[in-house]
Amino acid sequence: MAIKQLTVFVQNQKGTVVSVTDILAKNNINLRALSIAETQDFGILRLIVNDEKTAERVLSENGYLIKVIDVVGVKIGDAPGKLTEALAVLDRAGINVEYLYAFMARTEKHAYVVLRVEDNAVAEATLTAAGFHMISEADINKL
Fold first, then answer.
1. Stated pTM of the model
2. CA–CA separation, 137 vs 126, rounded Å?
3. 3-state DSSP percent of the chain in helix, strand and coil, to 5
4. What is the 3-state secondary structure (H, E, C) of 106-121?
5. Which of 38, 78, 96, 103 has the highest CB neighbour number within 10 Å of its CB?
6. Domains, in order of start, for the chain
């Protein structure tokens, strides 16, 4: 049930993010989630989109270095402590979370959290066993 995430390596300079989003928009690619981590010289732009194959192609054609990886998506309640509950489940199972970011669903009072872990299948099984609902690319595409 993994979700495809595009990791785009970009220069940390004015106009870079707008260039990426403009390329995607011109190719009818809709952003579902976005995260940026930066250093002084470069940034790592993480994207969940409605069409990762086209996004990967058009960004590569425009000179961007892209890596597509599988990440885990989990639906959590939009209330204090809900993220902690999900992270505690993974912690008790010895699953390290490399990074995460969240976004709100349009129609529900839930947040969707994207997690990068070493073993997606184990993390998904662990969270599911603890009562969390996993999300798929199909769920994201409904947003």
1. 0.80
2. 19
3. 35, 40, 25
4. CCCCEEEEEEEECCHH
5. 103
6. 3-69 (3.30.2130.10), 70-141 (3.30.70.260)
Beta bridge partners, 103, equal 112
Q: What is the largest CA-CA distance in the chain?
A: 45
* Amino acid occupying residue 10: V
Closest CA to 64 of 37, 50, 44: 44
3-class DSSP state for residue 33? strand
CA atoms within 13 A on the CB side of 117: 25
d(Cα 5, Cα 117) in Å, to the nearest integer? 13
| Total length of the chain | 143
| Torsion angle, alpha carbons of 115, 119, 123, 124, to 10 | 90
